[in-house]
Design the sequence.
């Protein structure tokens, strides 16, 4: 994965390509529409003055490189000694009196665009991150010092402000939801520090999740985007910004037709909040959610598999007083369909703090609507993870019973101590897992506690066996378990019962 940052070197090597006359003749006969729409030049002329270069500088602490430890008399000893002395440099030439490395200034270039003639510029956070000084360079070469208004690291966006030395050209946001696969788009930016460069391509995909952040929903395009294009605009054919070019996938560092832009729908909301508050104020529902797999959907009688399964509810969150419970599947939020957990995360985050919304959930096969007043997501909240528990093999071996490839036992004081299970956690503890079972594949492990089977609480291994046997008689292919770790963090796991 490569962010579209500026290249460190300005030296280029020209690469020639031989084209046969026959091939050239064939190309000349291609219809005009195959080369793209005719209006790209008009679009570029209209918006080029609103696209800017972003120049930053920062002081980097130079670290001394410790010479590797070599055996006395090693043939490499003299070589490394000379190498590290030369890297430090003699006193007065890059080093201090002791010859140590000194802090140095580094410069980088990226792209941005003006959204307000008062001097408001949008770019990527990674373009200006850790910068000591930020300058905006207009299309005519005018360089102006800029100040940072605010950043949002989760969407990699930043807003800058500078004092206009003359009247400016600004661009408007378009509706990224209206773009279609195959629509033509135009990217303008500062690749490899070359200055305003125009490229064109099509929308290759929408709502692309490439695991870069919690709110991934990128526009994918084959328009050429390279290092230095970061923060630059992606335009539709009306000259409206429908995305901010942010990163590329490339094994070489150059464009191979896999570029990604943050959609304008996300950008516009972030920019508005950064201008108003200098920070992001995202909505918070207060639930832990997970994917509704086909097995889980079958267990809950949900067809087709969709929505976000609530695995846990924060005691201090907005969902708790609204009556949302573990096992509920959220299928609609504030009138918007929820296809998967990522959908819910994005929709909730984009919803105003304090707004009362309708949340439609499926509970035991029936749809219910709950009214929730959203709280505010704090950036310093910990990400909850399920960790493997340490084991004390010296503890007395408990009486166990087998079911679903699991060794199960009633919770006792010794087992709580052995697996570090809090007193508040109730259920049946797993003491062993068959390595060839579905349970092992679903990553159940000793120390996990089964709280519910098929949405009914269990307190003994016999309860679990009884419920599983009944599900088998009913012809069910899988059983839904509510599983807790020692800290009380819940998740749902569907296991085959046949």
Sequence:
């Amino acid at each position: 994965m490569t962010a579209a940052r500026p290249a460190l070197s300005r030296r280029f090597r020209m690469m020639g390509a031989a084209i046969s006359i026959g091939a050239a003749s064939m190309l000349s006969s291609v219809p005009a529409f195959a080369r793209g729409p005719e209006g790209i030049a008009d679009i570029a002329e209209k918006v080029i003055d609103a696209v800017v270069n972003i120049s930053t500088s920062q002081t980097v602490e130079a670290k001394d490189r410790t010479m590797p430890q070599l055996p006395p008399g090693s043939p490499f000893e003299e070589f490394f000694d000379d190498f590290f002395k030369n890297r430090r440099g003699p006193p007065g030439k890059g080093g201090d009196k002791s010859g140590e490395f000194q802090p140095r200034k580094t410069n980088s270039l990226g792209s941005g665009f003006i959204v307000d003639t008062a001097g408001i510029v949008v770019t990527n956070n990674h373009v200006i991150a850790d910068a000591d000084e930020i300058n905006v360079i207009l299309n005519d070469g005018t360089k102006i010092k800029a100040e940072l208004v605010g950043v949002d690291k989760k969407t990699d966006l930043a807003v800058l402000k500078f004092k206009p030395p003359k009247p400016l050209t600004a661009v408007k946001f378009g509706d990224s939801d209206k773009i279609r696969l195959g629509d033509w788009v135009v990217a303008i930016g500062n690749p490899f520090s070359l200055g305003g460069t125009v490229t064109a391509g099509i929308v290759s995909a929408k709502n692309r999740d490439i695991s870069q952040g919690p709110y991934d929903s990128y526009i994918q395009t084959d328009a050429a985007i390279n290092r230095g294009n970061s923060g630059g605009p992606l335009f539709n054919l009306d000259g409206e910004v429908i995305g901010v070019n942010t990163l590329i996938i490339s094994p070489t560092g150059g464009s191979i037709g896999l570029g990604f832009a943050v959609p304008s729908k996300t950008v516009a909301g972030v920019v508005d909040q950064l201008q108003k508050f200098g920070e992001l104020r995202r909505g918070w529902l207060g639930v832990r959610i997970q994917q509704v797999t086909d097995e889980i959907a079958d267990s809950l009688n949900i067809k087709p598999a969709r929505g976000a399964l609530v695995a846990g509810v924060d005691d201090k969150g907005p969902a708790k007083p609204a009556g949302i419970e573990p096992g509920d599947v959220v299928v609609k939020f504030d009138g918007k369909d929820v296809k998967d957990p990522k959908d819910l995360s994005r929709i909730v985050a984009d919803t105003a703090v304090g707004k009362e919304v309708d949340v439609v959930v499926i509970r035991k096969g029936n749809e219910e609507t709950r009214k929730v007043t959203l709280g505010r997501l704090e950036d310093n909240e910990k990400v909850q993870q399920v960790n493997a528990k340490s084991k004390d093999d010296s503890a007395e071996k408990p009486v166990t019973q087998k079911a679903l490839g699991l060794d199960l036992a009633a919770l006792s004081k010794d087992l709580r101590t052995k697996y570090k299970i809090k007193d508040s956690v109730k259920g049946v503890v797993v003491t062993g897992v068959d390595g060839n079972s579905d349970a092992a594949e679903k990553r159940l492990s000793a120390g996990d506690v089964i709280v519910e089977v098929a949405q009914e609480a269990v307190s003994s291994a016999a309860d679990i066996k009884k419920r599983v046997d009944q599900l088998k008689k009913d012809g069910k292919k899988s059983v839904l378990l509510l599983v807790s770790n020692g800290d009380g963090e819940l998740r749902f796991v569907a296991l085959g019962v046949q």
The first strand starts at residue 2 and ends at 3. The chain has eleven helices and 28 strands. Residues 4 and 342 are 25 Å apart (CA to CA).
